[in-house]
Design brief:
Layout: H1 3-7, E1 11-12, E2 21-22, E3 28-29, E4 76-83, E5 89-94, E6 102-105, E7 115-123, H2 141-150, E8 154-155, H3 158-166, H4 195-198, H5 204-211, E9 237-241, E10 250-253, E11 267-268, E12 280-282, E13 284-287, E14 296-297
Parallel strand pairs: 3-11, 9-12
Antiparallel strand pairs: 1-3, 2-5, 4-7, 5-6, 7-13, 7-14, 8-13, 9-10, 10-11
């Protein structure tokens, strides 16, 4: 089954339905792509990818440090906002006659449930979290979790990732209301996958390189969320912790470089923790020292 086939699987929208509304709560989507891997994988950085020139944002090879006056280490971004589990995001213009992707959304509706304040640190870029680096793929959820923990961090939760992407305005795309394939690395044509080669240790790296349409971290200046987090939609999928634990503790956010939703709210929940694939990466989160406990805010009352 291809990624496009999986996109046609079951999906669930939350909130109240409006005319041609896209209700983007915690959306459930079935499997992204072919196969389930049961054995542990070797991490892969696709070969033959260019390295972007360094800028003042590049962390470099030195260990990240917590600079005086900052809440997060210098390779991370502080996110302080209110997360809403369910709200309406209504599509007002579609990309084509089949209406598979939304070209433009109306402004997001009010929160339909209680919201929760969240404050945390999140990696500025996809792992290895360095400007100009190629994101690492072919890691299971378990391996990604262990990597973050080895750095004194952790995998982001699904709600943290969503908030970091959409900002306090709850944008459908990190850069705004209008889908833009120039802003982030999305909407490339699908390349058929050789599943046998992808799972053969002697051919895996070559197959990943053949399939690779990703870009180095920070390559697109406009692909930045309201909080300043880079490359959250498109480029590579990102592992997160699904707070409900159902159907798995693992979930994927953000989409990848293909013609997929590539939005802040949707979540792919069909892959178990041992899954890995050529477009699956991750980034890490951590606590803010001395952060206050989360607080809930009741939903806005209807004027009717």
């Amino acid at each position: 089954m291809t990624r496009d086939d999986a996109e046609r699987g079951s999906a669930r929208a939350t909130g109240r339905t409006a005319s041609r509304a896209v209700l983007c709560g915690l959306v459930a989507l079935s499997a992204l792509s072919a196969g389930r891997a049961r054995s542990e994988e070797a991490a892969t950085t696709p070969a033959g990818t260019a390295t972007a020139a360094a800028t003042e944002e590049e962390v470099g090879e030195e260990a990240p440090v917590l600079v005086a006056g900052r809440a997060c280490p210098n390779d991370m971004v502080e996110v302080d906002g209110t997360f809403c589990p369910f709200l309406e995001q209504r599509c007002v213009r579609w990309t084509g006659p089949k209406k598979r992707r939304c070209a433009e959304f109306a402004k997001s509706g009010p929160c339909q449930t209680a919201s929760t304040r969240k404050r945390f640190c999140i990696d500025r870029y996809e792992y290895p979290n360095k400007f100009g680096a190629t994101p690492v793929v072919m890691k299971t959820w378990y391996a990604a979790k262990a990597t973050c923990e080895g750095l004194g961090k952790r995998l982001c939760t699904e709600s943290e990732w969503t908030l970091a992407c959409e900002g306090n305005e709850r944008l459908p795309y990190p850069y705004g209301l209008v889908r833009d394939s120039e802003a982030c690395n999305i909407d490339h044509e699908h390349i058929p996958v050789d599943e046998k080669a992808l799972r053969n240790p002697n051919k895996r790296d070559a197959e990943v390189a053949r399939l690779w349409q990703g870009e180095t971290s920070g390559a697109r200046e406009a692909c930045v969320s309201p909080f300043g987090v880079r490359d959250m939609t498109g480029n590579v999928d990102e592992w997160v912790v699904r707070e409900s634990g159902k159907p798995h503790h693992s979930a994927l956010k953000g989409g990848y470089w293909g013609y997929v939703r590539a939005m802040c709210r949707p979540v792919t929940q069909g892959h178990e923790e041992t899954f890995y694939y050529y477009q699956v990466g991750f980034r890490c989160c951590s606590e803010v020292a001395g952060a206050a406990s989360p607080t809930s805010t009741p939903p806005a009352q209807s004027k009717n």
